[in-house]
Write a structure and sequence with these properties.
The protein is built from 7 helices and no strands. By secondary structure, it is mainly alpha-helical.
Length: 238
């Protein structure tokens, strides 16, 4: 490697950069996902045991990595906003029992906000994974370029020396083999962990979808206003 050509060293340096950055992303995502899974389990356990939304919100704000906790915070904030809108102009007056209920249209608005939060969480979880996909697809071809360059160097040495001695072709062949190995070393971990992390994101997405449905169900049971049949007909006309 030390005696290889400038082109071969450039190829190896480029592959080294791809490999180092890929492993940095892999390790960061692995530990982040591990913490997120642990905090999700803790939050869901606390959520099922506690009926007070304010206490759940306080606990959710303490969790930095949990995806479902962030979804709950968004839903709780939207619920608080709609309850504030039902208050009178006196901002210091507490909500009465009737004012704590919201309409079906407002619950629909909360559901839309939660769906947007889920999409935002998916984007956050997927950040920088495209680099792993790029490394997995391009590193072998970069290594192949180094391989071709090494073979060209070997044929040039044969033409210059006029004979195919092992001493003349060995340096070029060595460059070719090293470049091939370096390309595979950079690409294989990137592909393996890209698939693993993508599967983890699908699991997180499924958990967020399930939690959002449970949260909306709780809102409908505890905060939805009772409306008469005439009001239902009016809503159907709208």
């Amino acid at each position: 490697m030390l005696n290889s050509s400038i082109m071969a060293k450039s190829v190896l340096l480029l592959l080294l950069v791809f490999s180092v950055v890929s492993w940095a992303i892999i390790l960061q995502k692995y530990f982040f996902f591990k913490n997120a899974r642990d905090e999700d389990r803790r939050f869901l356990s606390y959520f099922t045991k506690t009926n007070n939304f304010l206490n759940i919100h306080t606990y959710a704000r303490e969790l930095e990595h949990s995806t479902v906790a962030r979804i709950f915070i968004v839903g709780y904030r939207e619920l608080y906003v709609f309850q504030e809108m039902s208050q009178s102009k006196d901002a210091n007056r507490l909500l009465s029992e009737s004012e704590k209920f919201i309409s079906a249209r407002e619950i629909k608005g909360i559901s839309l906000a939660i769906n947007k939060a889920i999409n935002s969480e998916i984007s956050r979880l997927s950040r920088r994974l495209d680099f792993l996909a790029t490394t997995g697809s391009t590193a072998p071809f970069i290594g192949l370029f180094g391989t071709v360059w090494g073979i060209m160097t070997s044929f040039s040495a044969i033409g210059f020396q006029g004979s195919a001695s092992i001493g003349g072709v060995a340096p070029g062949v060595a460059e070719a083999l090293i470049a091939t190995a370096a390309g595979l070393i950079a690409a294989i971990p990137a592909v393996v962990f890209y698939n693993y992390l993508s599967d983890q994101i699908r699991t997180f997405t499924s958990n967020m979808d399930d939690f959002s449905q449970d949260f909306i169900y709780l809102l409908e049971n505890n905060f939805l206003k009772d409306i008469s049949s005439s009001q239902i007909n009016d809503l159907d006309l709208i």
